[in-house]
Design goal:
heterodimer; A: about 140 residues; alpha+beta; Alpha-Beta Plaits; B: 19 helices; elongated
């Protein structure tokens, strides 16, 4: 199964505080282990929300909101995409991650939807809709 | 944490560590079965101690140390028995206890490539390919015998026997579990790549409604490919095979219609191709070419797969390039199936007559008798050349040869369309 692993933001990451050399090294080693185990598909760190934007939707209305955003604990500071056998394996790998922040922090694991999860929802009509979207993309 | 939750956590740790554990132990005791037993013993120890002491910070190292201690104990006991027998009459051997010394030395000897050594051992050419695949899934993939049996549509007893026999063969071959180098590396690596691709293809061949363990073989093979790429970053064909698998797997979701029927490549909904896997596949392909693998079989096949992956629409496919790649592929990997695909590529690039000329060569070689796809392709070329009567006959011949119900229906429909 494929999971996205979110490193949640902290006051420090939102302040743009750079990790120490020791943390960079420890994180590098951890990433190496992920690659050697064949589970790492991708991942990156994200800049603080002071340089982020949001687009709020309300019916047909679109409002652009500039960062920074307040609810620090709900923000994301980085992510990985892993291919693991099950959630237990993902949890075990996260436990081995060095604390990504100087203070207390959290990492969240979210499984991707897979085609089989949609089941009956992918009707031939939905498939056809995708098809038309694809054709339009190709026409550009 | 509740007791059974702890147990589950320990079992997950073990599943992650198992391959490395067995690899390190096999290098030490030169015996896969014994290595597996020692690893199991370490698990049993962990299950009794960790719930009290908590999971150690480096559980892998803990398990390894526990297993190695046990190995040394066993050997010592074994030696003592030998000595007692000796005292009872035979001459007391004067030699020092070298086995134990060597094993104690190996405790500190972290070569880092033990897992790689185990992969090379499990895929040793002395074993038939199916035995290599089963052993690799067991030792490296950590699949149970039952899972392997279901994956290969076989039964547990047969797979268990296959694995026991394979381990015996390896034991008799006196392997050192070292990573081969030089000329030997080439042949042994080919054997490893063959097994990984065999596992991948077994998963790829799975159809809707089958046991889910079967399609998961694709993911397992990709993972093995990634492990190998991390361990052998200078081997072009490792990246060639990895690229080929990532790109082929990117289409897994698109190749089946909602009703379960197969969807051919030109008809697939390309919006459903997995772009993350395509990107990874293209990156691996670049690496393979940088390392000088451009004309090696897996890298060539990956290059072909990449031509399709890069085309946004079926009609954007660069058939000229594909035809050229098949010309090269048949030189390095001669096979009638490659020749058949080459004929199809040439028909797409240069018109149906070009395809007909090449497919007739394949026909005359007699290498693919009773192969439904041959008359199916020929029927398509004839149809496009407006030779409908001959096309109809070929489609009917193909339908009669096909053993797949949906394929048969498709071919009969094409025959009917010839008028």
């Amino acid at each position: 199964m494929r999971v996205m692993v979110f490193v949640k933001a902290t006051k420090d990451s939102e302040a743009g505080l750079m990790p120490t050399t020791e943390l960079f090294e420890a994180m590098g080693k951890f990433n190496e282990q992920l690659v050697e185990a064949g589970i790492m598909l991708g991942g990156d760190g994200l800049k603080p929300t002071s340089v982020a934007k949001r687009v709020a939707f309300d019916g047909p209305k679109r409002t652009v909101i500039d960062g920074p955003f307040a609810e620090t604990r709900e923000l994301v500071a980085g992510y990985w995409i892993w291919e693991v056998k099950d959630m237990a394996e993902a949890v075990e790998w996260v436990k081995r991650c060095p604390n990504p922040m100087p203070g207390p922090s959290e990492i969240e694991i979210r499984p991707f939807y897979e085609m089989s999860d949609f089941g009956e929802a992918v009707t031939p009509e939905v498939a056809e809709l995708f098809e038309r979207t694809r054709d339009k993309m190709g026409d550009r | 944490m509740a007791a059974n939750e702890t147990h589950r956590a320990i079992e997950t740790v073990f599943r992650i560590e198992q391959a490395r554990l067995i690899a390190g132990l096999a290098r030490m005791v030169r015996d896969v079965s014994l290595a597996e037993e020692l690893a199991q013993d370490a698990l049993v120890t962990a299950l009794s101690e960790w719930p009290k002491s908590g999971v150690p910070n480096n559980p892998g190292a803990w398990l390894m140390a526990a297993a190695k201690r046990r190995a040394i104990d066993q050997f010592r006991r074994h030696k003592m028995l030998e000595r007692k027998h000796a005292e009872l009459g035979r001459e007391l051997e004067d030699e020092r206890d070298t086995t134990v010394e060597a094993m104690e030395a190996s405790l500190d000897d972290d070569l880092g490539d033990e897992l790689l050594g185990l992969i090379f051992a499990a895929c040793h050419p002395v074993l038939p390919p199916e035995a290599r695949a089963a052993l690799t899934l067991r030792l490296i993939g950590g699949l149970t015998i039952d899972e392997i049996a279901r994956a290969f549509l076989s039964n547990e007893a047969a797979i268990a026997q296959r694995i026991v026999r394979a381990k015996k063969t390896l034991g008799a071959a006196g392997l050192t579990f070292a990573v081969p180098h030089g000329e030997e590396r080439k042949e042994r690596l080919a054997s490893v790549l063959e097994v990984i691709y065999l596992i991948f293809n077994e998963g790829y061949a799975a159809t809707v409604g089958e046991d889910l363990i079967r399609p998961s073989l694709c993911a397992e093979a990709q993972r093995l490919g990634r492990i190998l790429a991390a361990a052998l970053p200078e081997e072009p064909e490792v990246f060639g095979l990895l690229s080929l698998m990532e790109i082929q797997a990117s289409r897994l979701n698109a190749r089946t219609a909602p009703d379960g029927s197969p969807v051919t490549l030109p008809e697939q909904n390309r919006a459903r191709w997995d772009q993350l896997l395509i990107r990874r596949g293209l990156a691996a392909l670049e690496r393979a070419k940088t390392l000088g693998g451009a004309n090696e079989p897996y890298t060539l096949q990956a290059t072909l797969a990449a031509c399709h992956a890069r085309a946004r629409r079926a009609e954007d496919t660069d058939w000229n390039r594909i035809a050229g790649l098949y010309d090269t592929l048949r030189e390095v990997m001669p096979s009638p199936v490659v020749d058949l695909n080459r004929a199809v590529a040439h028909s797409m690039a240069f018109g149906p007559d070009a395809g007909l000329a090449l497919i007739e060569e394949v026909e005359q070689s007699g290498a693919l008798p009773n192969y439904a796809l041959l008359p199916a392709a020929k029927g398509d070329f004839l149809f496009r050349a407006r030779r409908q009567t001959e096309a109809k006959a070929e489609f009917e011949r193909a339908a009669a040869l096909s053993r797949n119900k949906r394929e048969k229906e498709f071919l009969l429909k094409r025959a009917a369309a010839c008028g």
